[in-house]
Write a structure and sequence with these properties.
Elements: H1 3-6, H2 33-40, E1 67-74, E2 77-85, E3 89-94, H3 106-109, H4 112-122, H5 128-131, E4 141-145, H6 163-179, H7 188-195, E5 208-212, E6 215-219, E7 226-230, E8 238-239, E9 244-245, E10 250-255, E11 265-267
Antiparallel strand pairs: 1-2, 2-3, 3-4, 5-6, 6-9, 7-8, 7-10, 10-11
């Protein structure tokens, strides 16, 4: 959750070199990429998409004040972390304080540098700042002043002069968890059981058909599914983007990651 893990450089090349050489200090999240690309292409982002269009025809009016960050699994180890970041402060919430920040992930533990760090830590050869990441437990809350402490070494959560700031960011994160319907509090096994009843993926419901004038409109009851269609003799499916002619012979179905495809609809 530290900036060394969540802060990523971003370069955008606009059409015809618009804004070439300029710098924008807004905070952008990865989930903004999809809506932004659609907006740049003149397509209104669907309501089911998270994130906000940052540029293009459907760009939001206000720049985001905060970015939100999540982490739940590191290879074979579960560790729930949530964070909110503004330009000045970052607040981190740990739900598994009994785990170290330096999780003993098998892949990392076999690295010579990690083994050397463990050795130095056990010998007490690291200073306070170097050893902080390797402690066997971690604090429930962390607050950092990114302006004065860009490497996030001085946890201010216990500072009595910053309790209002701590509560402010804690409330922002709690509200985002509610609004985003964050599932991190539900054990992964329970999520899988809900996602795969009796260990099997759900099948998407059949497509619905609406006849209008001389065209056929396809509708999926599963709103976030993608409809694809093809001619019966073709092997490649194409994304359905507009009504089709009544005179056209085709096959269509709904698809979505995590679900079985719907039954194939054949129009002849």
């Amino acid at each position: 959750m530290y900036d060394t893990g969540v802060k990523v450089p971003l370069i955008v090349k606009f059409s015809e070199n618009e804004k070439a050489g300029s710098y924008d200090d807004r905070s952008i999240s990865f989930i903004d990429y999809g809506p932004t690309v659609l907006s740049l292409a003149g397509i209104e982002p669907p309501k089911v998409m998270q994130g906000m269009a940052q540029f293009g025809q459907y760009a939001v009016d206000k720049k985001p004040k905060y970015t939100f960050h999540t982490s739940d699994r590191f290879d074979e180890i579960y560790d729930r972390l949530r964070a909110v970041r503004s330009k000045r402060y970052k607040y981190i919430k740990s739900y598994n304080t009994e785990l170290s920040h330096a999780l003993p992930v098998s892949y990392r533990e076999q690295m010579p540098m990690m083994q050397e760090l463990r050795k130095l830590y056990n010998e007490g050869a690291l200073n306070e700042q170097q050893a902080a990441w390797l402690h066997p437990t971690k604090p429930e809350e962390e607050l950092y002043d990114l302006q004065n402490d860009p490497f996030e070494l001085n946890n201010l959560a216990g500072n009595p002069d910053l309790q209002d700031t701590l509560i402010f960011y804690r409330n922002i994160l709690d509200e985002w968890i509610k609004e985003s319907k964050d599932l991190g509090g539900i054990p992964e096994r329970e999520l899988i059981d809900k996602w795969l009843p009796d260990g099997k993926a759900k099948r998407l419901p059949p497509l619905e058909v609406a006849m209008r004038d001389s065209v056929v409109q396809l509708i999926s009851p599963q709103r976030d599914a993608t409809i694809v269609r093809k001619h019966s003799q073709d092997s490649i499916w194409k994304v359905y983007i507009k009504p089709l002619s009544k005179d056209l012979n085709f096959e269509a179905k709904a698809e979505r990651i995590g679900y079985l495809d719907s039954e194939i609809l054949r129009m002849e």
